[in-house]
Amino acid sequence: MHAVSDLTAHMGYLLRMVSNAVSQEFARKVASEGVTVAEWALLRSLYDSDPAAPSALARKMGLTKGAISKLAERLLEKGLLERTGNPDDKRGHRLSLSAVGLAKVPLLAALADGNDAAFFAVLTGEERDGLRHLLAALIDRHGLSAVPID
């Protein structure tokens, strides 16, 4: 009979345990600012860019156009995004941050930075750099590009 491995023997299990702890705490922090992690990811994607069509955002973030549309609708209702016509496509539109959204992104980024700093403070600088290097290598070698939003 084949031996059954323990849950903790699986790297995926360990990664998920860490990811859940970091992500759940961050989700609580951004919720206090009235957004979800997925909404934050879309806001941050628009922060350094020109107004973008939902299809371009979907490609950039590795999401479906439907997922982008749902996120955008919620952010439009919250006054964090603006929708304008697309001069290149009369039927389409582009999304950009509103003035309120533009002001909120640095605040949310500070929450993200603080969340990472607090959680990973138990590691030395060398350990953090090594972990970042290994995770980046896995992302690169597996061709991962979708923005993790859940």
Notable characteristics:
two-stranded antiparallel ribbon; 150 residues; mainly alpha; 61% helix; Arc Repressor Mutant, subunit A
Summarize the structure in words.
It is a single chain. This protein has 150 residues and is mostly helical. The protein has one domain (10-141): Orthogonal Bundle (Arc Repressor Mutant, subunit A), CATH 1.10.10. The chain contains six helices and two strands, in the order H-H-H-H-E-E-H-H. Strand 1 and strand 2 (89-97) form a beta hairpin. The N and C termini lie far apart (37 Å).
Short description:
This protein is mainly α and 150 residues long.
Order of helices and strands: HHHHEEHH
Oligomeric state of shown chains? single chain
CATH superfamily: Winged helix-like DNA-binding domain superfamily/Winged helix DNA-binding domain
- How many independent structural domains? 1
The shape, in one word, is: globular
What radius of gyration results from the CA coordinates? 18 Å
| Main beta-sheet strand count, sense and barrel state | 2 strands, antiparallel
The largest sheet has its strands arranged as: 1-2
Low-confidence stretches: none
